[in-house]
Amino acid sequence: MKKTLEDILVRLSPLTVAVSGGVDSMTLAAAAHRLSGRDGVNMVHAASPAVPPEATQRVRDWAVRENWDLQVVDAGEFADANYRSNPVNRCFFCKGNLYGTIARYSSRQIVSGANVDDLGEYRPGLDAARDHGVRHPYVEAGMDKDDVRQLARGLGLGDVAELASSPCLSSRVETSIRIEPETLGFIHSVETFLAEKLRPRTVRCRVRSSGVVVELDAASLQSLTVADRTVLETSIMSFLPLNLAGKSVAFAPYRNGSAFLRTGTS
Description:
single chain; Alpha-Beta Plaits; 4-stranded parallel β-sheet; 7 strands; Rossmann-like_a/b/a_fold; Adenine nucleotide alpha hydrolase; sulfurtransferase activity
């Protein structure tokens, strides 16, 4: 553990870690708990249709393994019309609901797994964090994603250290298209199906106004024949829920954040 991170965690203790199930927050939770124990740190995880069920299960499993003080909550974002309308700053409303809920369960300092790489992107969720007084120990320690993975390996977190970056499922829905649980379930089913079928490095199922677009890393996309695409498109269409009935399916190269439209138009 970087000494500066250790110093920061000690200074902020007692604290509450917002744990999503990804490498950043899982590693922060493990580091803080091993440093301060149950008396100095507790974890809160928000279960939601926007969170893949395997992420929630990962948090639960590690909580048992590491003896974390864990609370699994409903952050209530699906009752928030602002979040559901999927505006350009949707993440602000998501994180605002999350941190507001955590604050009702804990009076401790809330910390997140944001790292310095996150500062180079448009992240309205960081505005919500600021409004709720949330601290970011990795940022304060000057740690990027590679540093976090190195820390996870040093802590012996196994597969957690190698988890691919995977924003919430709502990030796959094009700006201004309403966020529906059924849509997110479809996205997760398609991504799980393709991950098992193709073993791609990256897969994202985007729901756009023009249709469903499956984005794959270049190597995986290039390996698909015309016949392969036809078979996969048919399989993907079988997952379509009623609210997406009639949507076409296409494949495209992966582009980070491509469902996010700054203009707010579709």
